[in-house]
Automatic annotation (TrEMBL):
One of its GO terms (biological process) is protein N-linked glycosylation. Gene3D superfamilies: 1.50.10.10. Residues 26-397 form the Mannosylglycerate hydrolase MGH1-like glycoside hydrolase domain. This is Mannosylglycerate hydrolase MGH1-like glycoside hydrolase domain-containing protein. Residues 429-439 have a biased composition (Acidic residues). Belongs to the glycosyl hydrolase 63 family. Keywords: Glycosidase, Hydrolase. One of its GO terms (molecular function) is Glc3Man9GlcNAc2 oligosaccharide glucosidase activity. SUPFAM superfamilies: Six-hairpin glycosidases. Residues 414-439 are annotated as: Disordered. The keyword Amino-acid biosynthesis does not apply.
Length: 439
């Protein structure tokens, strides 16, 4: 059964106190990966979901930032680039980390983990850390429009989206002689180009050399990042109320960022990024522009127009959502974030639709199950052929499948035959999964 295979993936990728995204390509702990993974863990082992988040938040910096990578000291230095030697930082815990961040979906993960097995002590531990994460973003990244700016495409989570092509043109790069480890695992046609990576490295180096203080040549108000930030404030209000604290500051901030997004990023059909360096909106067809559906306070007329765009440009009713509109000239069905369908992005949009238009949410959930049934727990998928690309046994694909199944019911979401594609391996290899998992 698909859920048993999903648990097998999470068990095989567990690394003591956290889950790696994949064994071969991503051997460390990634920030928003761990949030999604914790949500999946909570559906079968809430203790492991709590451990996932506590491990990540244990590497939080004194200024409140939650780094996008926490490096495992047992992994050889050259196994991933850019690694600890490049970033040159240690968290107060002594752990080596990167110096940038990723979308703040962690409050949602903490709340969902708590709901799976209520644990007020866990909430009391993570609440101040989650508040500090938000406070860092306000202090270091707040734009004059009241939105949060990202300073690197990696911070968006959607690394090589065509939305970033324009602002990346302003980045002056030079060859650095680094070795791309990703191309030893995944075909080059499915990954960002060498030119993309040169610019990514140049941006990261400049930010590092500023002491992780100066934003540099890439400063963008990203719809997905700001939607995650706004939803985090909404969820922090729920956590505060659960702990007997005042939820109003969080509610006020959630409302403020929602209003700022509508005022500054809404183009009448889709939420768009805004380039702060150039001082203009970036016109793109990225599915990140649909993620503000996560915001409970989004005005009704904006919700309706946004859903119309999802139906028109992204074939929402087909269920398998591309990360970029297939009608756009920059669309590529197999290259990373330039078009393939990703489980986490589809899951975020499913979350928003569940709040605003439940009847449209179900096809998205069923689409996620359909691609996994066809191609296994891959990193991303061709939205037309459903063929899997990138890594196999990818953790957040497995984790969020577990969440969908738990939400909708196994029988309703198990495809005919009840087994994943043959490439995923035999279910009988994990007959006693429960016995393999430490308490």
């Amino acid at each position: 059964m698909i859920p048993r295979e999903a648990v097998r993936v999470l068990v095989s990728n567990w690394d003591g106190n956290h889950t790696v995204p994949s064994r071969r390509l991503y051997p460390h702990q990634w920030s928003w990966d761990s949030a999604f993974i914790a949500i999946g863990h909570s559906r079968w082992s809430p203790r492991r979901g709590r451990a996932e988040l506590l491990s990540l938040l244990g590497a939080q910096w004194r200024d409140g930032r939650v780094p996008h990578i926490v490096f495992n000291p047992r992994v050889p230095d050259g196994a991933y680039f850019p690694g600890p030697d490049f970033w040159q930082v240690r968290a107060p815990s002594g752990t080596s980390t990167s110096g940038i961040v990723q979308p703040p979906v962690h409050a949602l993960a903490a709340w969902r983990t708590h709901l799976a097995e209520p644990d007020p002590a866990f909430l009391r531990r993570v609440y101040p850390k989650l508040v500090a994460q938000q406070e860092f973003l306000r202090a270091a990244r707040r734009s004059p429009e009241g939105l949060i700016a990202i300073v690197h495409p990696w911070e968006s989570g959607m690394d090589n989206s065509p939305a970033w092509d324009q602002p990346l043109h302003a980045v002056h790069d030079r060859p650095t002689g680094y070795v791309r480890r990703d191309l030893g695992t995944v075909d080059a046609d499915e990954r960002p180009t060498d030119r993309d990576y040169e610019r990514y490295v140049a941006l990261a180096r400049a930010y590092r050399d500023s002491g992780y203080l100066s934003p540099g040549a890439f400063q963008v108000e990203d719809p997905l990042f700001n939607a995650a930030y706004g939803q985090a404030e909404h969820v922090l209000a729920l956590i505060a109320a659960e702990l007997g604290l005042d939820p109003e500051p969080h509610r006020h901030e959630a409302a403020a960022v929602t209003a700022a997004m509508v005022e500054h990023l809404w183009d009448g059909a889709l939420f768009q990024p805004r380039d702060l360096v150039a001082g203009r909106m970036i016109r793109s067809d990225s599915a990140a522009g649909l993620t503000p559906l996560l915001l409970p306070g989004l005005p009704g007329d904006v919700v309706e127009r946004l859903i119309s765009t999802a139906l028109d440009r992204f074939a929402l009713k087909d269920g398998v959502l591309p990360s970029f509109s297939p009608a756009a000239p920059d669309f590529d069905p197999v290259r990373y974030w330039r078009g393939p369908s990703w489980v986490n992005l589809s899951w975020l949009i499913w979350q928003g639709l569940s709040e605003h238009r439940p009847e449209l949410a179900r096809p998205v959930a069923e689409g996620i199950v359909r691609v996994i049934a066809r191609s296994g727990f891959r990193e991303y998928f061709d939205p037309f052929t459903l063929r899997g690309h990138g890594c196999s046994d990818f953790s957040w694909s497995a984790a969020l499948l577990l969440d969908l199944v738990a939400e909708h019911g196994l029988e309703a979401l198990t495809p005919p035959g009840g087994e994943v594609a043959e490439e995923q391996g035999s279910v009988t290899e994990a007959d006693d999964i429960g016995d393999q998992v430490p308490a």
